Each structure stands twice: as C-alpha cells, then as structure tokens.
Amino acid sequence: MASNAPRATKSERLEAARIEARAKREAADKKRRQRSLWTKIGIIVGIVALVAGGGLWYYFGAVKPNNTFADSGPIPAVGNQYGGVVLDSPTTMVSTGGGEVTKEQVDAAKVLTDPNYKREAGEAAPAGVDKSAKPAQIIVYVDPLCPHCAEFENAYAGQFESWLSEKKATVEYRMVSVIRSATNYPARAGNALYCVADKNPAAFLPMMKSLFADQKERSNAELAQLASQAGAADLNSCISNGTFRPYGVVGQGQMIKDKIGGTPSIFVNGTYYNGETDGDFVEWANAKIDAANK
C-alpha cells in the first residue's frame, strides 16, 4: 500500500543530512578523544621503557641508525621550505619552483632527529604561519602510519575539499614520521606523497584518501601502484630511490624546532586545534575561517 506521508522538502532533506553528518563528526571526535588518553599513556610507558633499556627508538622524529638516505636532494616543485605542500584547490597546489636541500641542511636536521637530541620545551608554533592570511591558512602535520591521522582524514577529508573548492582556505600538508616502523614506512610513504605532489598535484588528495582508507605498511612497489591508481603514473623510480627523503628529513627537523608534539596537529591561521577542549572540529574551524575571511 502506498504511503500518504508527505515527501520531505529539499530544505528538510538538507537539514537531515547536516544532522547526520554532524552526528558522525561528533562520534569520530569522541572516539579520538577517548583514544588520545590511551595514546598518551602508551607514549609515557614507551619512553620509560626506552630510558630504562637504553633503546635506540623514540616516538617523535624517530630515525633508525640504519635508516639511510642521500645527503642532499631535490625539493618538490610545490614544496616549501618547511616541508609542506600547499593546496589552493582540491586539484592544484602553490608552485614554489622546487630547488635543492643541501648536505648542510640535511646534517643539521639529522642532529635534531637523533634519538639523543633533547627537545626544547615550549608552545608549538609552526614556521611559515600567516595569521592574517586570506583565505584562511590551514596547516596539517600528518604521519601516514598514525592511526589518529587516519581517523581524522577519514572523517574530515571531504570538509577540507569543500573549504578548498569554496576558496575559504588553503590546506598545507607537512608529512612527518612519528610512528616507529621497522621498514621506515612513514618516511617512505611521505616521500611517495611528495613524488605525487611533484608529478601531479591533482592526484595528491586521492592518494591521501587511499593511504588512510586502508592504512597499512606498504612496499615501495605498492606505493607506486597506489600513486598510479590515484592519477600519478610512472613514479617507481622516485618512490624506490627515495628522491625526496632528504627534503622530508629537513621538514622533520623543522617540526622538532617548531615544538610540534605529534600527529595529527592542525593549525588554522596559527591557532592550534585541541581535540580535548575545542569540541567539534568543523564548528571550531569554521569560526576561525569565517573570522579570517572577513
């Protein structure tokens, strides 16, 4: 029997969709906040164990003694001096002209990322922030193997695309390594993302989505295949040779100098998003973005 109930209007359907999307975001935020405590506990336990055992690993800026890469190397055509690539639309990036990182820069970064380096305390402050930027400037520190990064990207990648499409914000991704990996996967996957950004910026967000939708450690060949599926073909050499690894380690050193404590770390016009106290990310970010664009 056909229903006599009136069909919902377009505005009612949109409102229902907004309510559903907000509920999903709130659930993701709650889950992330709950896990955050256990992550912090795990880090503390891990650090205590490392100190007691004289271990060679540490969580933030981790580098294995046998983690070798070139002493110098190229900068992606869209890479800035802070280890970031800046999207100004879902398919385009701000060109920087590339360049080279020198042996001196890489050596200085290796000092910062050495397990014996003592980090300075202080407030996180990313280099390159423009607090008066219009459109708003979003900076995201991300590790391809970080589970909270996957949760965040899976929940909000679509929102980032909307802000980019509407020209409300630029989005800068700074790929770093904070999770331990016997295969140096975070650094290798970060290099793969730089390869994609350099080759075809339009493939960058699809590559990010693929990495986080099915987060796992991949071989270089698998990363190249994923890049090809995203729209950036013929990157086998760039990925397997670690072409942008020197650039990546310089960015890693910059992260440590800027006192960034972990991933994901998100800043809007220089203001840090604290998932423990700032509530719903989209509402928080929209307030910052609207204020920046007035």
TrEMBL record:
Where is the chain membrane-spanning? Answer: 37-60
Please name the Pfam families in this protein's record: Thioredoxin_4
UniProt xrefs under CDD domains? DsbA_family
Sorted keywords for this record are: Membrane, Transmembrane, Transmembrane helix
List residues of the Thioredoxin-like fold domain.
135-277
Residues folding into a coiled coil are none
InterPro entries, A to Z:
Thioredoxin-like_fold (IPR012336), Thioredoxin-like_sf (IPR036249)
Q: Does the keyword Transferase apply?
A: no
Keyword field contains Isomerase: no
Kindly provide the name given to this protein in its UniProt entry: Thioredoxin
